[in-house]
Amino acid sequence: MTADRTFAVYEWIARFSGVDARLAPLANFGFDEEGLLARVDSRTKLVFICNPNNPTGTWWSRDRLIRFHERSALT
Asked: What is the pLDDT of residues 29-39, one digit of tens each?
């Protein structure tokens, strides 16, 4: 899983690996924490967070990344 309209290689890697890449829309040109979390389910194995986001340059602090990881089902 990753965001739509971010570094496209993440989506390409999934596709070339035979994995269904799920995309969450960006919010204010950055990753939407709630949008990503809403899409995490029991099949989710990996969430790509491009930080800083390419091409928008938005970024998450270390604390925000940690909070996101703690809230996800991936812990």
From this structure: 999 999 999 99
Residue 20, CA distances (Å) to 49, 53, 61, 64, 67 in order: 17, 21, 28, 26, 26
Global model pTM greater than 0.85: no
Q: Omega into 25 within 30° of 0, i.e. cis? A: no
The structural domain count of the chain equals: 1
How big is the chain by its Cα radius of gyration, in Å? Answer: 12
Task: Collapse the DSSP code of 55 into the 3-class scheme (helix H, G, I; strand E, B; otherwise coil) and give the result.
Answer: coil
Instruction: Give the domain extent around 56.
Output: 2-71
How far, in Å, are 2, 55, 56, 57 from residue 39 at the CA level?
A: 10, 23, 22, 23
pLDDT given at position 42: 86
